[in-house]
Amino acid sequence: xxxxxxxxxxxxxxxxxxxxxxxxxxxxxxxxxxxxxxxxxxxxxxxxxxxxxxxxxxxxxxxxxxxxxxxxxxxxxxxxxxxxxxxxxxxxxxxxxxxxxxxxxxxxxxxxxxxxxxxxxxxxxxxxxxxxxxxxxxxxxxxxxxxxxxxxxxxxxxxxxxxxxxxxxxxxxxxxxxxxxxxxxxxxxxxxxxxxxxxxxxxxxxxxxxxxxxxxxxxxxxxxxxxxxxxxxxxxxxxxxxxxxxxxxxxxxxxxxxxxxxxxxxxxxxxxxxxxxxxxxxxxxxxxxxxxxxxxxxxxxxxxxxxxxxxxxxxxxxxxxxxxxxxxx
Length: 329
Hints:
The chain is mainly beta. The protein has a single domain, classed as Jelly Rolls (Sandwich). The chain has helices at 2-32, 40-51, 75-79; strands at residues 61-64, 70-72, 81-83, 85-88, 91-93, 99-101, 127-132, 138-145, 151-152, 157-166, 172-180, 185-192, 197-204, 207-217, 220-228, 234-242, 254-263, 273-287, 290-293, 299-305, 311-317, 320-326. The strands form three sheets. Strands 1, 2, 8, 9, 14, 15, 16, 18, 19, 21 and 22 form an eleven-stranded mixed β-sheet that branches. Strands 3-13-12-11-10-17-7-20 form an eight-stranded antiparallel β-sheet. A three-stranded antiparallel β-sheet has the order 4-5-6, with no helix packed on it. Strand 5 (91-93) and strand 6 form a beta hairpin. The radius of gyration is 21 Å and the shape is globular. The model is unreliable at 1-26 and 107-120 (pLDDT under 50).
């Protein structure tokens, strides 16, 4: 009798799983990651956003709308966001009056078969950039965050490593990390068709972090970074932003990755440098289960600006390279 009851129980569990209990369990895991303080419409919205993310990206989630509204699965995460307002060119100011340079991009509309150039405007500082052909909506990489003697910025210069892409409507997204010359650590850098954002959570320098950028649902993009924060705690933090024209199947979209020094006043002899920015295990595709290592057939454009003297690349393959920018020549 006991054996028969166990058999019946196993059959019931299998039946429940087949009709959706697994999905319910996944939803329960999402709920466990949301603070009880998040209620009402905000809880409903952040739950919907989190359910589109890869499960490993749901621990700490912030969602930023095109009009600047901010939602999160934990109240403290919203307090970590710093919004910057444009002053002129690529110079922005925060609410405390601090000013700094951000990478500057030009407007662009992608049409299938079009070969028009697009990218960081001359005047924003030196950079190494790789852009993919259209058709991709997902990328990941390990990136070494330079620190100590590997990075130095004079006043007005700021080092960045970031990924992102360009949607079918011309919206360009930057999503990655920004170096602090004051503290020698790295914060998030986010920009989607509007003013940039940075964050107060910071990652230690001199470590390799795992970075993933993808389109979790049409019209939204996500950046997830896993690494050790300044308290030596390993964390995964994810930011989702509204960005029109980005599609999960990658149609009309390009992926990019960049190493830069943004400048308030472009000067290729400013004295700054940003070296040992090692990118490796770089993958591209349309999802976490449909991707491959970057190769020559994925490449649309490669730029070293202003030249190969100030931007020196130790190239291994399209999936691995170390970028070095020298403004102290």
